[in-house]
Hints:
Elements: E1 2-13, E2 16-22, H1 28-33, E3 37-43, E4 47-54, H2 56-63, E5 68-70, H3 86-99, H4 103-110, H5 114-117, H6 122-129, E6 133-139, E7 144-152, H7 157-163
Antiparallel strand pairs: 1-2, 1-4, 1-5, 3-4, 6-7
Amino acid sequence: MAYGWFICQYKLRPGRPNMRYCAMDDFTPQIVADGGKWAESEVLGGYAVVKVSAASTTLTTIGGTTNFYRITNHIVLSDTLSDLTTTQRNAITTRVLAMGYTQAELDAVMGNTLALWRLKNFLTLLNFIAQRKLTPRWNATNQMIVLDGILQSCEPITGVDAKVI
């Protein structure tokens, strides 16, 4: 069994536009067929941080799917990001900013250089991403889900990690 951490979005449930689900659920049949499982923490911007256990081929398929991003190859939360490349850092930064966090918030936790990021551990990065979310609501006028409610805490990353071992 292989493991991977991903960022993916929430999607609208077909035929039920006022309901949404974590897009990782699209891979549930394949993950279960591998004898694996997954767990998520909904985060800011309608995204989720997801840990998956599955065959390595399934993880590769998920990572190659549009709107799914595999967060480095780190699995163990205490791993440092010492091998992070500039390309990987830029990709993570782009995702985090798309969620709605600011560059200043990211820099305050991770630092503003690759060298500073490399001193952090994987848990620090994931905890930053999973620090808050906004309550979703159905906007009947526009027929869409809007993320503009009150701030909420996210499922702790350590809890997600413990569910997929």
